[in-house]
User: Fold this.
Amino acid sequence: MSKPPAYHSFLLRIWQTSDEGRCTWRASLERPDTRERCGFATLEQLFDFLRDQTTSQPGWPGIDAGEKPHPAEDTGDVSFP
Assistant:
């Protein structure tokens, strides 16, 4: 079994949206080596993912090993499940 990486590198994007008059923060992470992106509907989801990355086996949230996350559009917009 291989050891988890001793470090992680991500490009973090965060932006604010308005949903029914309520402001919500959205986020995405991109792995610079593979250009894979993963979107987060809330900052709590982002924090949970980062916590998991530093305490368990790496992976994208809700994604089984070997699968890729939902790709972000070329415009930089991210689709959320």
